[in-house]
Amino acid sequence: MTTLTPTTEFTTDPSDSIDTSIIYMKSPIVILIWFEIIAACLVYGLGFIGNILSLIIFCSLSEFRRISTGYFFLLTTIFNSFHLWTLSTEFLGVFEVYIYSNEFLKCRLNFYVQNVSRAMSTYLAVGIALDRLIRSELPLRSRVICTRRNAAIYTILHFIIFALIWSLWLSPSITQDPITLRCIYTRSRTLYFYLTQVQMPARLVLVCIIPVIVMISANARMLYNMRQSHRRVANHMEIPTALTTISAKPTRKSTLRRMTALDRMLFYMMLANIITFILTQIPFHIYTMVRIYYPASDPLSNSLVRALLLIWSSLYFGVAFYLYCLASPLFREKFMLISKTLFQYFRRRLFRNR
User: Which run of H or E residues covers position 183?
Assistant: First the structure.
């Protein structure tokens, strides 16, 4: 994400670019830089491929599209793709490689889309957790509450809210230096103060702390409801006889076995999503806040650390497909089926052309 330092007087670039001439030198720093470049290629390259495959699988599962949870997962993948693109362009900017030459696209729209897509991806993940919680807390009423229509309303409301909150990134006062090609944020002191002293702390709370608390609480409560439901079923299944009473022992494994294949897939996907979010997003948000109030004396070291955390943060927006394949046998089965179908299709086309 964009990181601004309040102590800078003239220009600041969210990417804090590194002098690319040093990559031809031999030193531990150069090794770290090349490691970051290779890691970024893997993360962003595999991330885009994974998101495309996730979209194909989600769209091919008719039973998945009919439920609100599946709708949330589909939208999350779309917003993750937008956000991953903005992160990749920002990372390239660290090494003075700019995708956009137009100042509106580079300095305003790119970071506006980045903030909105990050918030939307986060709160769609919150929506997934709340959706599954309602289904476990209110199994009968959830048929009325957890619908695709309500999921669409939830998404539209949050999109409008976040689009308004980050609308100041589209301000004409954000321009570009024609010589250095770096973005200038200090033309308006009021806007600069808002972006650094107001919006950054608000983003930490709104897009990191609150979602983490909600997702952990919802997941813990859902697991509690699953155990309670299993105990009720186990008590109901106790069959007293004249010799002994045979009772089923409640275990987590047997609880999950009674879940449908789709429910089990959604549960594992949600769990993987929450764990990945906590591990990848908290360090980056904390770093951006610390850097605002404690600017580093060494710009190169600061840029290298920031680039590493940017790559680490990007994992959440590109690794979902691979986690879903590992966590869900049904998702993995659908992926293999689609891969086999595509392979046979291209094979037929190849032989036909011959």
Answer: strand 183-184
Q: Any idea of the CA torsion for 152, 156, 159, 164, to the nearest 10 degrees? A: -170
52: amino acid identity, one letter: I
Query: What's the rounded Cα separation, in Å, for the pair 285 and 290?
Result: 9
Q: Where are the alpha helices (DSSP H) in the chain?
A: 28-60, 62-65, 68-94, 103, 110-137, 142-145, 148-165, 189-193, 200-204, 210-236, 252-258, 261-293, 299-318, 320-327, 329-353
* 288 and 3 Cβ atoms separated by less than 8 Å: yes
User: Could you tell me which of 246, 287, 271 has the C-alpha nearest to residue 327?
Assistant: 271
Q: Is 296 helix (H, G, I), strand (E, B) or coil?
A: coil
Report the DSSP pairing between strands 183-184 and 175-176: antiparallel
Enter the DSSP assignment of 41: H
Mean pLDDT by 10 residues, the chain (354 residues): 39 45 58 82 90 87 80 92 89 76 87 93 92 86 90 96 93 85 82 85 90 90 76 59 42 46 72 86 85 69 79 87 81 84 81 70
Helical pair 68-94 and 320-327, crossing angle rounded to 10 deg: 140
Structure tokens belonging to residue 105? 């696209």
* 175 φ, ψ (degrees, to nearest 5): -125, -170
DSSP string, 310-328: HHHHHHHHHSHHHHHHHH-
Q: Sign (positive/negative) of CA torsion 149, 153, 156, 162?
A: negative
- Please give the single-letter amino acid code of residue 332: R
CA nearest neighbour of 100 among 91, 89, 111, 113 = 89
- Give the distance, in angstroms, between the CA of residue 315 and the centroid of all CA atoms in the same chain: 8
